[in-house]
Amino acid sequence: MTQQPIIAPSLLSADFGNLERDVQMLNRSKAEWIHLDIMDGMFVPNISFGIPVVKAVRKISEKPLDVHLMIEQPERYIHTFKEAGADLLTVHWEACTHLHRTISQIKEEGMLAGVALNPHTPVAGLEDIINDVNLVLIMSVNPGFGGQKFIERSLRKIEALRDMIKRNKAEALIEVDGGVCRDNVADIVKAGADAVVAGSAVFRSPDPEAEIIALRDC
Q1: Is 0.85 topped by the overall pTM?
Q2: 177 is known as an active-site residue
Q3: Is 194 a catalytic residue?
Q4: Which of 22, 40, 177, 194 is catalytic?
Q5: Which of 22, 37, 40, 194 is catalytic?
Q6: For 133-173, how does the pLDDT look when each residue is reduced to its tens digit (9 = 90+)?
Q7: Which of 28, 138, 158, 182 is the 20 to 30 A CA-CA neighbour of 120?
């Protein structure tokens, strides 16, 4: 049996007609974080939701809000997402011209700072910042839409990132987002992941709370 990962259900797959019901379900569940995907239709080819939804979820949620910005120039909105209630704010390496500065700004606002990598982006580019971030998010699908199939090569990236963290004596957590399900979560955690984002696997399950337990007890 592998270690128990942090489970962060993604609200992108929730029922937005019954969002409060779904957040209350997550409050009761064994999930540790609630993952919110913010998409601007520019950095990724989809638009999800924005500040008002984050604020509404913050009022209901008893769990930390793990906010993933899939937007261009995310540094423009760091303070805004802090005010909206984000506990952990993740920006994309590919969207930040001055990544170190952006990470520093997130931490100055009192949030944990994460950096996300698209499937085509190698982990080697994080060598000079790995000791500054609290989390690295490995995208195991191309970002923008839920329900995609896990890219198997992501396991190698997780292993390479785990080696980098150990080599630099860093403390960053590894989170994996995309196509996570019961069939692959044990391999993902074995490769070195500390947290997994699960959207479709949780919210399309007939018993989401039981599914969260099954993913955690991989």
Answers
A1: yes
A2: yes
A3: no
A4: 177
A5: 37
A6: 999 999 999 876 666 789 999 999 999 999 999 999 999 99
A7: 182
